[in-house]
Amino acid sequence: MKIILRQNYEPLGKVGDVIDVKDGYAHNFLLPRKIAYIALSGNLRALEDEKKAVLKKAKHELQASETLATELEKVSITIPVQVGEEDKIFGTVTSQMIADNLKEKGFDVDKRKIEIDESIKTLGIYSVNIKVHPNVNAKVKVWVVRE
Fold first, then answer.
1. How many Cα atoms within 13 Å fall on the side-chain side of residue 44?
2. Residue 126, strand partner residues
3. Which tens digits make up the pLDDT trace of 78-116?
4. What is the Cα–Cα distance from 120 to 88, expressed in whole angstroms?
5. Is 90 exceeded by the pLDDT of residue 55?
6. What average pLDDT score do residues 36-59 get?
7. Pick the residue with more confidence: 51 or 57?
8. Kind and range of the H or E element at 138?
9. Which contacts (CB < 8 Å, 24+ apart) does range 81-88 have?
10. Distance of CA 65 to the CA centre of its chain
């Protein structure tokens, strides 16, 4: 049976490839999971429409991410911590603390997208990278101060 792939599927190929597979594999696995269409001329047109929609959505997400990144670049956050001898803090400043502080300022950032280069264990000013999008990063200044 000839099918058209709707999405990248590693064992078979990339989006838009027309390939030949066994009938059972197509009917029982690929078609129900919406990985492929049956190769008909109407389905080729539907696939082209899906590609356009996906590209438009990706472009919109990229623009929104770039806007968010420029807004995040302007933000600096202050995290008050308890300090011991020689200005060493108890524990470390975590990505969760940074995410919570950003949430208070109106930015909903997932803690897994915050990249801390070296662990923050002393008072000072740090630059923290945030992956807003796979292609867009933002730097946020983090001030770690005495509580």
1. 7
2. 142
3. 999 998 887 788 889 999 999 999 999 999 999 999 999
4. 10
5. no
6. 85
7. 57
8. strand 136-146
9. 81/123, 81/144, 81/145, 81/146, 81/147, 82/147, 83/123, 83/146, 83/147, 87/122, 87/123, 87/146, 88/121, 88/122
10. 10
CB 61 within 8 A of CB 67: no
Tokens of 50: 């899906």
> What is the rounded distance in angstroms from the CA atom of residue 71 to the CA atom of residue 138?
9
Both structure tokens of 25: 């594999």
Quickly count helices (H) and strands (E) in the chain: 3, 9
Place of tokens 């933000």: 75
Can you list the domains of the chain with their CATH numbers? 2-63 (3.40.5.10), 69-146 (3.10.430.100)
